[in-house]
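Page 37, continued from 36.
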């Protein structure tokens, strides 16, 4: 890094430190309601900063809905929860045209997707038609009702949940839709002290509530700042080496993975790793990206983008093991 670049990065870090203080405010305010789950909260904040969507996988009762609702309250954003069921229709999601008898004309009635944060609860319970309607909203940030296309609010983020158990009556998400999610986050059980704290809080007469600490515009301004964060060429090569190791493991010195992977990560994974690494540096109040920023978000970015072979699944192998081997093998700059 040249002296000029070093000075630029230093001044950028000072600017980032000032402009990222609201991150601590958000985390502190949400912790009044949510016990633990800091990794989940950080991933949701990264998604907001990257303009990306999140797929949450976890057992029932792990405060997924409460976390998202609390975050919406704290950033003063609109929030809608949609329970996905097998009889859900695309119109229930995006809206429909309604005939007005007085005027004799059809007028649009916008659906619940016209909001900032959408919680798509148990997304894999809805049929393909509904999932494809959601796909347009996620990918294009717009919705078509009748012959007219309407832009969605900004920020607009889909936070979808799926239950790892009870797979009866579910529709597996197609790879094209999975690839639209910036992260796939696994939500785990709280620790014993955390659960005791939950028990104490929930036994009080009035459960705690979070206040508003920032506005959606603060998030949009922070997004702009994230694009300025410095990423060295060696780190860009590091990201490319990780992604290419999932596509062509034999060429990248990992021949043992060739039979395990059916399809590797797409170019969206490369973009997601780059964006999320910058956002991770931002929430850590830094103006530059480190290899640790890349490694810390690699599992969440890649786990749903690697399709395992039938043989690997039969042997009980999953994408987590592939990512671990790739990160151990690729040289850190």
């Amino acid at each position: 890094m040249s002296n000029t670049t070093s000075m630029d990065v230093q001044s950028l870090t000072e600017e980032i430190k000032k402009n990222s203080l609201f991150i601590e405010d958000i985390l502190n305010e949400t912790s009044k309601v949510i016990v633990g789950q800091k990794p989940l909260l950080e991933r949701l904040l990264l998604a907001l900063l990257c303009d990306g969507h999140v797929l949450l996988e976890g057992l029932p009762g792990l405060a997924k809905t409460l976390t998202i609702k609390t975050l919406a309250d704290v950033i003063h954003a609109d929030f809608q929860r949609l329970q996905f069921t097998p009889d859900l229709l695309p119109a229930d999601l995006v809206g429909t045209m309604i005939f007005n008898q007085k005027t004799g004309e059809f007028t649009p009635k916008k659906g619940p997707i016209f909001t900032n944060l959408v919680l798509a609860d148990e997304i894999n319970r809805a049929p393909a038609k509904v999932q494809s309607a959601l796909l347009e909203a996620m990918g294009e940030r717009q919705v078509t009702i009748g012959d007219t296309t309407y832009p969605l609010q900004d920020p607009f983020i889909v936070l979808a949940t799926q239950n790892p158990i009870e797979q009866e009556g579910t529709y597996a998400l197609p790879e094209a839709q999975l690839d639209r999610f910036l992260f796939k986050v696994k939500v785990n059980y709280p620790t014993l002290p955390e659960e005791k704290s939950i028990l104490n809080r929930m036994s009080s007469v009035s459960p705690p509530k979070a206040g508003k600490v920032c506005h959606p515009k603060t998030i949009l301004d922070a997004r702009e700042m994230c694009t300025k964060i410095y990423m060295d060429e060696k780190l860009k090569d590091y990201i490319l080496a990780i992604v290419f190791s999932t596509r062509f493991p034999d060429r990248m010195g990992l021949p043992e993975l060739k039979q395990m992977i059916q399809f590797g990560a797409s170019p969206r994974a490369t973009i997601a790793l780059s964006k999320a690494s910058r956002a991770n540096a931002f929430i850590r109040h830094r103006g530059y990206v480190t290899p640790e920023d890349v490694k810390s978000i690699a599992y969440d970015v890649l786990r749903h983008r690697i399709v395992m072979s039938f043989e690997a699944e039969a042997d009980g192998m999953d994408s987590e093991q592939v990512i671990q081997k790739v990160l151990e093998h690729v040289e850190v700059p």
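The two ends are 13 Å apart (CA to CA). Flag for discussion at group meeting. The chain has a mean pLDDT of 84.
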